[in-house]
Amino acid sequence: MSRAQTLTAAALAAALLGGCGGGTPPTTTTGDTVTTPASSATGTATNPVWPSNFPDPQILPDGDAWVAIATNGNGMNVQTLTSDDLVTWTQGADALPQLPAWTTKGKVWAPEAHRFGDRWVMYYTTMAPDPAIQCVGVAVADDPKGPYRDTSPGPLVCEKDQGGSIDASPFVAKDGTAYLYWKNDGNAVGVDTWISVQRLSADGLKLEGQPKRLIRQDLPWEGNLVEAPFVWERDGVFHLFYSANDYGSDKYAVGHATAASPTGPFAKDPVPVLTSTDVAAGPGHCALLEKDGRVLMVYHAWDPAAIGSDVPGRTMWLSEVTFDGRKVSVTPPSARLPAAL
Predict the structure, then answer these.
(1) What pLDDT score does 129 carry?
(2) DSSP letter string over 183-213?
(3) pLDDT at residue number 334
(4) I need a labelling partner for 309 at 20 to 30 A (CA). Which of 200, 282, 297, 325 fits?
């Protein structure tokens, strides 16, 4: 869409008080405004919170507001959305309008950002020209919305003998130590996929020490890959969320593992913590955020009737995450947002 696109939710208060429940009427589109019709009995359907293609989302705090970033689309290298309440979203500008010479335009995936000091640092996946494999770049901005600039002469991570490197995710532990997690793109060349971790410098721009492999695909539900790591620290436990299986199917899902250290060893749950429902297929590539003491998970999912289709594509959803020691619970994808968001 060429103009700003805004998602509005009628009868918002009723929707937020309802919790996660059954299905409600589908969204309808009029021009550049997307609304979810209200139900007098159950409130308003408000998931997905963005009903157009917005893959691999992450939501960042922006003062009292929020900004979401995502994989390329809609003429942007890194798509952005802005919101005051996590429910109503407006399309923003390209967060990475200029790419360095070593990258390939139109092939920018899975951006994730973190604030280091007074600057935001974004890690993104893109295709390198020689060899033509996916690698991880790093860019810097003064604002979470961008514009980010990558002035580096080459990628930050690029495992040429392992199929490339994708899905970089920064994490800063409570002790101030920074880490970068990523996946080698092994399924592209017929080798194992590993989630790896390595120390980051204090400014987030350089890797320090040596990488360490953490987990690979070794559970039946994971298919031939693991990817999209995201780490969250809670009460001394480090929770690794990751996605696995075929992203273009309803088998894609979010797994969970825990460790006593950011560098592992991580012990996996035997089954995924977020899977397909009758309203959302293949949920995955998640990130966590905190609002008013509650932890929310943002992720993408397909319309079950249009898996793999560009329209509507992978839309943006929210669920709630609760923690109990090493255990987590994630509300299943529902047409209604978590209660009292």
Answers:
(1) 77
(2) EE-GGGTTS--EEEEEEE-TTSSSEEEEEEE
(3) 95
(4) 297
